[in-house]
Write a structure and sequence with these properties.
Largest sheet: 3 strands, antiparallel
Number of strands: 7
Order of helices and strands: HEEHHEHHHEHHEHEE
Strand order of the largest sheet: 1-2-3
Helix content: 40-55%
Strand content: 5-15%
Structural class: mainly alpha
Length: 310
């Protein structure tokens, strides 16, 4: 029985329940011993929400009937191949979190995404990227290089602009409002109408940000408020692109669920004929829409198929 090392509750569920069942026919999670030992009230306090969801789906009471579980692919979201350094097959391209398959493959249990992101970001990549940079030889680039000067000038212009606005709204207030827009319209379940609404609201909020945000301090010293403002400014671009990309894909696949495209049973309805490609969006400036580049996906051995949890 797979256990989710990232989720304390999920692990306790498996630990306190007892998996039983004939080989090849299914696995059952029986909580009768735990209920007898700890009491139903304790089990309800710990896992009431999980049991309630299970009962809604199966119409079976997990407090009285063993839960039907089985090892299966949870999300068919794939993931890029990486080595033990989290480096892909492209030298210098490192892949973090659920974008790679290193820890969980295609089977991602509850909260494992958080664990993988934290472990990759905090404990692995700072060392592996440093090792790669130290062991590699790159062309010498100094401050006189055209691209270096261009990058430095761009950062300075952004800093000066942020500090000169002196508006009335905090960076955090814009961050929270932007997050709410994305949560409401570009979450796990989306619609074309919702995504179109989100794009308009994001653009309006971004315009207000550049006119009414306030950033304390200066750009001469370490300024956390200024750093946060720069990140939120980037978040506007990323949030809009997420919605544009979701709107361009008229299907439901993997973690992308468009409510207009689902089977009668409520499963994700794929359209591999038109959307079996990798999408890359090119930035063309703040005044121009991003440019879509497609790379077709070819499957010679294992082909995509319609997902079903039945």
């Amino acid at each position: 029985m797979p256990r989710d090392v990232a989720s304390r509750n999920a692990k306790q569920v498996c630990d306190e329940g007892r998996g039983v069942g004939p080989t090849g026919l299914g696995v059952y999670l029986d909580f009768s011993d735990a209920i007898a030992r700890l009491g139903e009230h304790t089990i309800r306090e710990r896992y009431g929400n999980l049991f309630e969801m299970y009962q809604r789906i199966t119409d079976e009471d997990p407090y009285k009937v063993p839960m039907r579980i089985y090892p299966a692919i949870h999300y068919t979201m794939g993931g890029l191949w990486v080595d033990y350094q989290l480096q892909s097959t492209i030298p210098g391209l490192f892949v973090l979190g659920e974008a790679n398959f290193s820890d969980h493959g295609a089977n991602r249990l509850g909260a494992s995404a958080l664990m993988q992101g934290l472990s990759d970001g905090y404990f692995i990549i700072p060392y592996t990227v440093s090792n790669y940079l130290a062991a590699s030889k790159f062309p010498q680039v100094d401050e006189s290089h055209t691209e270096v000067q261009s990058a430095v000038q761009g950062v300075r212009e952004t800093i000066d602009r942020l500090l000169s606005i002196k508006g009335k709204r905090t960076v955090d207030s814009f961050h929270r409002e932007l997050g709410k827009i994305v949560w409401n319209y570009c979450g796990m379940s989306r619609t074309a109408q919702g995504l179109e609404t989100a794009i308009v609201e994001i653009r309006n909020l971004r315009e207000e940000f550049w006119q009414n945000v306030t950033v304390l301090g200066s750009g001469d010293d370490l300024n956390q408020s200024l750093g946060r403002a720069g990140r939120v400014a980037d978040f506007f671009e990323l949030a809009e692109l997420m919605c544009i990309d979701a709107l361009a894909r008229n299907e439901s696949c993997g973690g992308h669920f468009r409510e207009e495209y689902q089977t009668p049973d409520g499963e994700a309805k794929r359209d591999d004929e038109h959307y079996s490609y990798v999408a890359a969006w090119g930035y063309r400036g703040s005044d121009h829409p991003p440019e879509l580049t497609k790379e077709p996906l070819q499957f010679d051995y294992v082909h995509p198929s319609q997902r079903s949890y039945k």
